[in-house]
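Re-run with default settings, no changes from the original entry. Doing this only to confirm the output is reproducible before filing.
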Amino acid sequence: MRTTFGLLSTVTMGLLLACTSGGGDDTGGSTSAQSDPSGDPGGDPSTAGTGSATEVTPTGTDPSAGTVTMTDPSGDPTGDPSGDPTTDSSETTDTGTTDPTAEPGPLVEPGDPGPGDVTFTIRADEDRHPISKHIYGSNQPGFLTGMGLVRQGGNRMTAYNWENNASNAGADYMHQNDGFLETILGVDGDKPGSVVGALTEQTLDVGADMMVTIPICGYVAADKDGGGDVNQTPNYLQTRFHPTIAAKGAAFADPPDLEDGKVYQDEFVAWLKSHVPEGFSGDRARVLFSMDNEPDLWNSTHPRIHPANVGYAELAQKNREFARAVKAVAPNALVTGMVSYGFAGYQSLQDAPDKMGNAIDYYLAQMKKAEDEEGLRLIDVLDLHWYTEVYANGQRITGEDTSPDSVAARVQAPRSLWDPAYQENSWIANDVLQGPVQLIPWLRAKIDANYPGTLIGFTEYNYGGGGHISGGIAQVDVLGIFGREGVAVGAYWDLGGAHTYIDAAFRVFVDFNGVGARFGDTSIRAITSDVERTSVYASVDAGEPGRTVIVAINKTGAPLTAAVALAAYADYASLEVWQLGEGGPNLAEVPAPALADTNAFVLPMPAYSVSVVVPRE
């Protein structure tokens, strides 16, 4: 690979992201009323937490994240989510597609599979829509084969100065300015932009796309002097920080002027475009830009530069101004905005001083107004963070508890993303909504009412249990839901515990056989008769309509059989099956059942397991 900025090891890259991503996300996710797992576990909507809990010092010591249709309880999408422009259909046979314009042949209707504990009904001719590669994203990816997105975001990036690679730790570590990012990355911090450029290069080299954070809070670190809290310096805001400014209004410089006392973000985008041009070629750039990180927590994560609660009008104006500057330089790049930390942020930006109705409604309406006035869309994706607030066994399931109660709650929790018949045990469902969350349909209704065509992204989320099959099942379920519901962007946030089953869950979709075989690029109808005990997802490839991949989940502690009827653009002769289970975080090929009739079979599913089924002609 290229070494323009220095070589990143997988371990170094993971450490970097673990320490920079998340406004209150490190070893515990987002803070505050939704309660980021690193903050107040009580989830009290009247209080804010403290932000990221774990930060690593430069010496390594530890001082202390379209349209989509509603679905019915059977898991049946009732319409066609609009395709995301990032869907990639350039792979071959087992790893993806061949001809992206291939027409399907005749549909083969299924026969009778026989009896099963549950039934799965799958149809390749219904509810077809593209699956965005960007849902297979992470803040700490380790560069698994087939990953679609790497996000570099979080508290550290809010005050990141691309000109000299300085940043401020905020509440995560003494509000200190330092060179932490360049140190943990092992890059030359004297080279402008090396912290972002190095990761962008490596991400693109392995085939994933990159999400870069644009600091919009107001100020970025001017120095790497360390020494603890910047407030020990008189007039620190003037002497230890520089204003972050959206548009330079003059010719860009490379290298940038380090003596002008200002940091221009359009100049940053131009610099990145110049140094990593492959990230910006084609109709759709492979570099995405995010409007900062968790602004609804700035007053708790970065009080030295933004001591007051962010306001509705302030956030909308900053998003408009900085997104316009990005689009002026990179018009083919997707821009994500709002980047709220959690549910209380969605409601009121954590009690904004000028709150007027729901914060998402206001934000979307203002972004629609911006497009009308500017003549182009500035914000493509409504970007949110979602750390489940479900409690079991006296604790939040985002942790590592694997008691029977936590396991049972964890494997059901993803249903709150869509299911109108499921009410989770959380303050959100019980106290605020007094009913099911149905997060994605709820968001889609807001988008349809205020700014149609806006995509949905979840750039930090976590369901806990990363070292246990329950965490793997939840993660598989989430990725399946994202694909079925037309989510455009997703990036898992590692809370600092084990993640072996999370890695395995990603492999279910991006490398299930260990040599690059993956879930298809087009979602199709897949319905289970019992959403409490099972989930099922299915795909084909746009360029190979006869290639079907099915992902089936048994969420119970007992074996189940599923009677599967598959209407497909092929007459299958046999099956191949890979399974993930309680025995370890590895997908293993297992003996496959025989077809009982045309495109019909009974699938044995072990207790707490995930099955990947590939029919063969």
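Residues 9-93 have pLDDT under 50 and may be disordered. The chain has 15 helices and 25 strands.
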